[in-house]
């Protein structure tokens, strides 16, 4: 029993479960017009706007009375108020069955709406039985009474078809009146009311209770509930009409399918309360808003037909969402809305324990008004635009504004918290800081912002820092692996398109393989600077979730043989989201580790992240040969050789792990507040000569890795058509990724610059071997040289990254000798993170120029030798530049470095790495 956990008051379990059942009945009555309204609409010939007004009127009443009912609950006890509300709304519901005109029904609907006011009564009543650390779960259980909407949708259609809508009203009225009587006699008086009765105390006046509503933060909190609850109620009312209008379903089927939305949006509110108790409501609200933005965006896109004027005439195709995908997305939306509803109400009894009724009533009123305004707006938008999905477009705008406003407020308060030395980390939902009552308690955060971070302090690192850094490293690495997989997925897809009927030219296929490199590299330029602005945790969550867009897009596009090249080109560009994520990932992780472990950490993050290419090239060829998702995944395509292919799986297979990655990032990662800086602060790197030198060198290592990953499968299929190269394509990225992950320690020991110099010489030798093998028509020799090139490129990826922090600490030690050592370290780390992100952006263009170089060379000369000789010259230039700038006698780490001797007090310089001890 719930009452056995924590320090719940006597009778807590009985009060909770009876209130939950009563609220379920109330909610079933409150949403009765979602079903009987359809019968009334047909009987009276109502327009969509009139129908929306009728279904929304009970919601209006139930919302407006919540503040008053909440205050009365605090004054005279929730038990009596709850029972009275049920009896009065039951009488109004029964009288509704005798209404025969539209105005009479509107008047009856006002009385029915009293049932919705029971929510603020129940919140005030139930919260008084539980301690703060258990209120999220308790109120989540109570709030699950929202499932009453599903009860109405499931049962009312059968009663209405058999007996008429009037019978539904009479049966529902009898149920709520009986429940009201049971509630009055079955529940105990709340503890506060008992205390007042025994002590003869007078309840606080309504005017005094309402003073708390002057806090602007409470109204902002109400906005969040406007979406998570108001949007839920609006969709609960609107979905039967939507399903009938869009998919042509009958009323019974529409009512049952609408429950797929209502049930999870109700039951999972309990889970949302538990998550809020355990992890904090702020994280839950962020997850709710981010996922809701994605879901409402997908749902708001209307069925569209496209006509493209092609060379051989118009090319037409259309896009639309089927019933099954619609229900899946609605289920996901309902799930996260339920979490958000619990998260909002988690805070009210914690921050305002003396005014739960007033604050809870206001928040509930604004949310309930959303349930009134939104159905009316849905109907008006449909009448005005004639577009069914306009309702979801409106929800998309609301949740986007809510997310941006909440994040802006939190960022503002986090900056204030960071500026105050006595505040170790920002409180839960910091826009409420200082606005709660004296009894308010804030939950400790397991993830989120960290104000104090000292990785170079041995005690701090061993006792606190290492475990936090490792957790952030492995979550970031998992997300980065998925990013690389989605980024490079076209390297496999393009090789299969001709076999299922697409007639793209060789040049077009190379464009599809190369274009993700353009967009990924370009996005890296911006992503490199976003972690210090937004925070690594939020940005990792958003950037990982963005991978769902190309994953879904590819899955749908390849199923339609009429999909034009232009759409594939757009999807290839969107895959660049995955490429951009690398810059922000390495920039974020670089802040967590001390100099002595930075090379290894970045090597693990980048190396295993790079492994995503190999994982993709291994998994996708297998996944496309089987119907993994059944009917949800679409029909198979017949290849030229008669085999069945599910090429859509190349996109769909990444959807579940990407969703998991976004959740892990949000609930498991941290932000280092001392790493926050503006773009202007980071822009100083553009004046650093070493920044541009490292761009050239990293292009030689990572540009090779990612370019060969993108171009090798198609190149091998063209120059060695007799070999099934896709069976071996994954080995190259695998070797390169493992070499990168395992060689970070080597660069930490002997110096990244020395390792990089020899890497470039071996790369040049590998190119000579590739040219010889092509001329000799030896696939074994060619593939062996490719594996060698991948291996040394992986080693070079780790060594060049290790060079950056060593270079910047050397620069700051010389240029800012008068600056305290810790401050020099902080500035050097900030610029190092920005440079690491920026050079990764420039190097990523290798994913474009290497496949396009092969394509140009083959189309111009009939051979790939021209491109390979150009790559050979480039590697020699990288080796020469490394020698002159860093490893030679006059290089930074040479015997006579160009920057001179280290400043006094800087420590002894390690000539192998450039670092100081």
TrEMBL record:
CDD domains documented for this protein: MFS_NRT2_like
Keyword Transmembrane helix: yes
Protein name as catalogued: MFS transporter
Region of interest: Disordered: 897-917
Compartmental location: Membrane
InterPro entries: MFS, MFS_dom, MFS_trans_sf, NO3_transporter
Record-linked PANTHER family: HIGH-AFFINITY NITRATE TRANSPORTER 2.3
Gene3D superfamilies xref list: MFS general substrate transporter like domains
Its membrane topology: Multi-pass membrane protein
